[in-house]
Amino acid sequence: GENVEQHPSTLSVQEGDSAVIKCTYSDSASNYFPWYKQELGKRPQLIIDIRSNVGEKKDQRIAVTLNKTAKHFSLHITETQPEDSAVYFCAASKAGGSYIPTFGRGTSLIVHP
Amino acid sequence: SQTIHQWPATLVQPVGSPLSLECTVEGTSNPNLYWYRQAAGRGLQLLFYSVGIGQISSEVPQNLSASRPQDWQFILSSKKLLLSDSGFYLCAWSVDRWNTEAFFGQGTRLTVV
């Protein structure tokens, strides 16, 4: 089955800095890569996603890049703010195939004011 | 619009007692349903998934079971809880095998004492 590795497990940055979280996946057939944000005590919610036919996607301060050849994808947050502090999860799935999403172990992002 | 309900929000149960967590989804038909557990290490571990009434797939052997008696209802159960069953349990749904974004319930914080 699919295996998703996520790094780092903890990331501490100063407000205004950029943050990058990286994930690798094992199944070359995976074609959908979402990122979820989970604030303390709350449910994970989708913040951005990318499909395998796209190399990069941006939404304001967040962006995701995908390298299909290397089987890795990354989340980039620019101009970080304290409210960005949360646990971020990457996931991979095969839409149209064995579609069950496999999640990474999560990254705890701490943005210091 | 679609909504997912999960209850209770918190639960403290003694070792050896039974468990029943319920999840319901409104506003969509034949959703894919999932139970995840989030232990102290933050990772999201898939426990069960269901593609239809009465259809349950288990990802890991454990002390838990799941049932889907109605299209919109997904239940996580145990006959006898163990200390190791403590954790944050999340129910989620997705549209189908082509639309795999996961929408999570609010979660249940289970503490087995």
Give a quick summary of the entry.
The complex is a heterodimer of chains A (113) and B (113). Chain A contains no helices and 11 strands.
Q: Can you characterise this structure?
A:
- Chain A is mostly beta strands.
- Chain A is built from no helices and 11 strands.
- In chain A, strands 2, 4, 5, 9, 10 and 11 form a 6-stranded mixed beta sheet that branches. A 5-stranded antiparallel beta sheet of chain A has the order 1-3-8-7-6, with no helix packed on it.
- Chain B is mainly beta and 113 residues long.
- Chain B has strands at residues 3-7, 10-13, 19-26, 32-38, 44-52, 55-58, 65-70, 73-78, 87-94, 103-104, 108-112.
- In chain B, the strands form 2 sheets. In chain B, strands 2, 4, 5, 6, 9, 10 and 11 form a 7-stranded mixed beta sheet that branches.
- In chain B, a hairpin with an 8-residue loop joins strand 9 and strand 10 (103-104).
- The model of chain B has no long low-confidence stretch (mean pLDDT 91).
- Chain A binds chain B through residues 9, 32, 34, 36, 42-46, 49, 87, 89, 91, 93, 95-97, 99-106, 108, and chain B through 32, 34, 36, 41-44, 46, 49, 90, 94, 96-107.
Q: Which sheet architecture does the biggest sheet of chain B show?
A: 7 strands, mixed
| Proportion of beta-strand residues of chain A | over 45%
Helix content of chain B: under 10%
Secondary-structure element order of chain A, N to C: EEEEEEEEEEE
Low-confidence stretches of chain A: none
Oligomer: heterodimer
Dominant shape of chain A = globular
Distance between the termini of chain B: 38 Å
Strand content of chain B: over 45%
Indicate the mean pLDDT of chain B: 91
What percentage of residues of chain A falls in helices of 4 or more residues?
under 10%
Low-confidence stretches of chain B: none
Biggest pleated-sheet summary of chain A: 6 strands, mixed
Class of secondary structure makeup of chain A = mainly beta
In total, the number of strands of chain A is: 11
Structural class by SSE content of chain B: mainly beta
Distance between the termini of chain A: 41 Å
Biggest interface pair, counts: A-B, 26 and 23 residues
